[in-house]
Give the backbone structure.
Amino acid sequence: MGQKLLLKNIDVPGIRYYQAYRENGGYNNAAKALKMTTDEILEEVKTSGLRGRGGAGFPTGMKWSFLAKPEGIPRHLVVNADESEPGTFKDRFLMEFIPHLLIEGMLISSFCLGSNASYIYIRGEYAWVAEILEEAIDEARENGWLGKNIQGSGFDCEIYVQRGGGAYICGEETALLESLEGKRGNPRIKPPFPAVKGLWGRPTVVNNVETIAAVVPIIEIGGEAYSKIGVGRSTGTKLISACGNINKPGVYEIDMTITVEEFIYSDEYCGGIPNGKRLKACIPGGSSVPIVPANLLLKTIDGKPRYMNYESLSDGGFQSGTMMGSGGFIVLDEDQDVVYHTYTLARFYRHESCGQCSPCREGTGWMEKILKRIHEGQGKMSDIDLLWDIQRKIEGNTICPLGDAAAWPVAAAIRHFRDEFEWHVLNPEECLTRNYGLAHYADPIELKEEPAN
Amino acid sequence: MEIQFSEATQKRVEKIIARYPEGKQKSALLPVLHVAQEEFGGWLDVPHLDYVAKVLGILPVEVYEVASFYTMFNLNPVGKYVLEVCQTGPCMLNGSDKIIEHIKQKLNIKEGETSADGLFTLKPAECLGACGYAPMMQLGKTYREFLTIEKVDELLEELKNLA
């Protein structure tokens, strides 16, 4: 049983509301933080080793220390709740069931960063979650945790919830800020970074929901103790949202010391694969991270067990590893079609490309069309190389990471499942009636050479 | 008919605008578009967008470019109930194709179309953040999760009776 920090009280009845949250120690850490200096709080966050939980894994303390503090210009904290990465639904779970944890984390963070008006940018479709947050904000204000002179500290803070309009791109921090300013979600060119010029040109910190919630236990147990949970640079706990072909889909808090095998098969977590089917492939960190076949998921290329943490999941780089990403864990059983699955992801990225950079705007649509025809038995052998070529030309050639995010799933699918693509081309009729199946994807394999540019 | 927010809605809009610093009322655009879409029958025509521009004191084009960028704003008429069925990876793994196909047959419509009685629009959607509760659809402000053919039938019946 791993240590729980964020979800330890999730089963307490009524924890969604202020009373139960407060009775279980809620807002004690905010009270504690308001008596500390802002430098002391920053130091605790730095010491904790907390890394951004939105997907990039950037150290939070470092991000905070970059915040410019020019005289007379307001600063802002913006929480990124635009959770839209396929496979990811952990922030929704936190906000829906324990909203005060986010509010408390925002209060502490806003105090540390000097933000008197902080915003939660939540994806528009989570309409009812936005309402839950607004209720929680009202409760917090009624009890003196928001508003003027909070708990006699002299610190003023308001939190506002803003719903987006259904655009994945707004999870990219500069697109989010554009959207919050009432514009199209077109990512900005960096620099300047939001820490210098963010919301309305003011210094801004943008952090994921889970990151800000994790500030609460860091204040509670101290940065030092937090950094001792987990391994190496994967400190603390991580929420994993598990889905796909598993017995127990849902959100799990792990301490990053368990193996991937345990996570999939143990009854404490995913509970194995339904109907006794075998594992074929997995995307462990949200749709943009590389898909890996069963053999490379459970063991690294050196034959060591793979663990659920940042370093172990990326062991082997993109050749044989993948990424922790946002923690959206998608499991595919032996009856799933990798070509079709990749096609749905390509369609997603084409739909969500903002259209600003031509490699992404044109490339995502092109990849979608090619994948569709391969899936429908209309593909040619040369299409596979063409796909490879297109994704190479998108990667790294766009303003924001959406281009990479669209390229990687296609690249990884071809890298590891090339023979399944070929089978679709060679069996145009059979592929309409049955899937390629498990094939050799659970057998030990040797590292393949990357095709030349 | 003159396009205008009701008094209660006008108050709501003023409260939204007050969240932002002075002169930054354009930031209220997305929230106000959501309010307008609710108020004006589920979709936004050009006069509605012009009205929102007037309320916020910005140019109509600033509203058009935003309203057309975000998927949630309907710029064409929709049925009373919009069935937004997720079809991305994780939902596909759990059979979203069958759900979409069933709705198409049952209502005799194609994707993006509205049923003859004007009640239902089918709008296949990309990932809605409910991957662990797949297959699913968004219906107004709520999600309907762990869908089956039977549940969809029940839902359609229920909505027909409500209408």
